[in-house]
Design a protein that fits this description.
9% strand, 274 residues, alpha/beta
Length: 274
């Protein structure tokens, strides 16, 4: 069985040493108890650097993608299938590492529990796709994806809706069924992709994004096969980030978007390096 957490392995002897020192010298009135700081200080350092340590290790020694997820990706992920064999391995390694490094939870019946791995993977493929041209494929500080089992209200958007990007807390919130449909059915609006793209814009404000606001909705409407009103009604709120909407259209059909808006497409190609 492969080691997945280097921080756990590094912590184990320090935890044991700390426990032994505590049991030997606790309450004996001597200064020997101060030796507990010898293992305790590096243990605390490992605890606070856990994510960085484990991610570095997985970059060096990627954990194999679960066979069921690999099968789904090979059969249904059109982006993955467009890659050569070497790039497919890189994609699989990145997806596996993302699933380990990011918190993905389901909210149902006022309870929060971990999302099944296959559902995690379906949603996470959208992040791997848009960041595949970058070294940082974890999308900055956006470390949580929460899925409701139904449309949901939030303090920011009190009415029922199916996706939201919480920029202050660096969290993407989705309606799970709608998110899955958007990934597996190209006739559905892809809310997972839209959410990740809005997070991408927030995570990398220094990038030279094209000015697309004056381009309006006509090209995205054509590519999605849906009107602006149809999309907004489906989402439960108006799309306010038209840049992310154009990026969504670009990733949905790069050829058509490039033919209709070559200048914007060239900018996206440069930004995403793909």
């Amino acid at each position: 069985m492969r080691l997945r957490s280097l921080s756990w392995l590094l912590s184990l002897p320090l935890v044991i040493t700390t426990a032994v020192i505590a049991s030997l010298f606790w309450g004996d009135g001597s200064n020997n108890f101060l030796y507990i700081f010898v293992p305790l200080l590096p243990l605390l350092a490992i605890y606070f650097a856990k994510e960085q340590i484990d991610f570095w290790y997985l970059q060096k020694y990627p954990y194999p993608l679960d066979s069921r997820i690999r099968t789904w990706v090979e059969q249904h992920d059109t982006y993955y299938r467009s890659l050569d064999d070497q790039r497919k391995k890189e994609y699989s390694d990145r997806l596996s590492n993302y699933l380990f490094a990011r918190e993905m939870m389901i909210v149902a019946n006022k309870e929060t529990k971990e999302m099944p791995e296959d559902i995690k993977a379906i949603i996470a493929t959208q992040c791997i796709k848009i960041t595949f041209g970058h070294d940082d494929y974890l999308l900055g500080n956006y470390d949580r994806v929460y899925c409701y089992t139904h449309p949901f209200p939030t303090p920011n958007i009190p009415k029922l809706h199916i996706y939201e990007v919480e920029k202050e807390d660096k969290m993407i919130i989705l309606s799970m069924d709608n998110a899955i449909k958007g990934v597996v059915d190209q006739h559905q609006f892809n809310i997972a992709l839209q959410g990740y793209l809005e997070a991408y814009i927030d995570a990398y404000p220094e990038k030279d994004f094209p000015l697309v606001h004056d381009l309006g909705w006509s090209v995205p409407e054509q590519i999605f096969g849906k009107s602006r009103d149809q999309i907004n009604v489906y989402l439960g709120h108006d799309v306010t980030d038209i840049l992310a909407l154009h990026m969504n259209a670009y990733f949905t059909n790069k050829t058509e978007y490039s033919n209709l808006l070559p200048s914007a497409a060239a900018s996206f190609q440069r930004i995403f390096n793909q």
